[in-house]
Amino acid sequence: MLMEEERKLVAEYGRKMSTDGLARGTAGNISIYNPELGLMAISPSGLGYFDTTPEDVCVCDLDGKVADGTRKPSSEHGLHAAFYKEKAAHGCLAIVHTHSDYATTLACMGEPIRAVHYVIATAGTNEIPICGYTTFGTPELAEMAVKACTHGNAVLLANHGLVAFGKDLKKAYNIAGNMESLAKTQWQCMCAGKMNVLTKEQIDAVLVRFQTYGQTTSKPGELKGY
User: Fold this and answer.
1) Among 111, 95, 101, 103, which Cα is nearest to 29's?
2) N or C end of the chain, less CB within 10 A?
3) What span, in angstroms and rounded, lies between the C-alpha atoms of 151 and 166?
4) How far apart are CA 179 and CA 128, in angstroms?
5) 176 and 22 in contact (C-beta within 8 Å)?
6) Beta 154-157 vs 130-131: how paired, if at all?
C-alpha cells in the first residue's frame, strides 16, 4: 500500500480530531505530504473519521490525480495542495483543517486570533490572520488562504474554520489544538469586555525561549514547539 505509514497516521489523527472536538461528523480534513514522492495522503471525502481505515485514505499528487486508493479525496485537496506547493520547502509537510468551535466562531466574526496568551507562539507568529470568504473546495479559497498566511503556521478561513500546518502531523495537530484553546480564551476575553494583547516583541521573546524548551535541543532557526 503506497504511503502506508502516512495513511495510518491520517486515519489515527482523524479519530483523535473527532474525539477531541476539533471536528464533528465529516467536517475538516487531514493530510501528510511526501516531497520525495510528490504525493500526499489525505482523508477521504464524506467518510466519518471512525469509519475511515488506512485503506480509505487517498493518495494523490498535488494536481489531485489519485495515485493509490479507491476513495474520492477530500473536497479540500486543492487547499492542502496549494499550501504544499507554496510552503513545503519551509516545513509545511502535514496539514490539519478543523471546524473547531471557537476558532470557527472568530472566523465567522472576521476576527484574527490575537496574542492574548503566549501559546500563540507555537504557531510561530503573534497573530493568526484571516482570509476572506469564498466557497469551500474551490481554487479561489486555496489561493486566498495561502496568500493570507504570510507568516506563521496557521490561518483562519472566514465563515469556515482553521488551517494549521507543521513539519509532521503531530506538530500540525498540536498547533490546531493550541489555536482552538487560544480562540476560546480570546472569546472569553471579548465577552468580558477586556483583552490584553501581547506585543510582537513579547512573542518574539517567547519564540527564543521555545528554542530550549523541553528535553532536546532544536536546530538553529527551528521552532521546536510547546
Assistant:
1) 95
2) N
3) 13
4) 9
5) yes
6) parallel
Q: Can you read off the three cell numbers belonging to residue 217?
A: 535541543
Question: What are residue 68's DSSP bridge partners?
Answer: 59
Type of residue found at 184: K
122 and 174 in contact (C-beta within 8 Å)? yes
Whole-number Å distance between alpha carbons of 154 and 127: 9
- Across the 226 residues of the chain, what is the mean pLDDT of every consecutive 10-residue run? 97 97 94 98 96 97 95 97 97 98 98 98 97 97 98 97 98 98 98 97 95 63 47
- Read off the amino acid at residue 72: K
Distant-in-sequence, close-in-space partners of 73: CB < 8 Å, separation ≥ 6: 42, 43, 44, 45, 58, 60, 64, 66
Q: Which residues contact 64 (CB under 8 A, 6 or more apart)?
A: 73, 77, 78, 81
Pairing of strands 130-131, 39-42: unpaired
DSSP conformational letter for 218? P
C-alpha distance across the termini of the chain, in Å: 34
Burial of 119 (0-12, 13-18, 19+ CB in 10 A): middle
CA 210 – CA 226 distance, rounded (Å): 7
User: How many Å apart are CA 118 and CA 147, to the nearest integer?
Assistant: 25
Q: Which residues are catalytic?
A: 76
CA pair distance 187, 106, nearest whole angstrom: 8
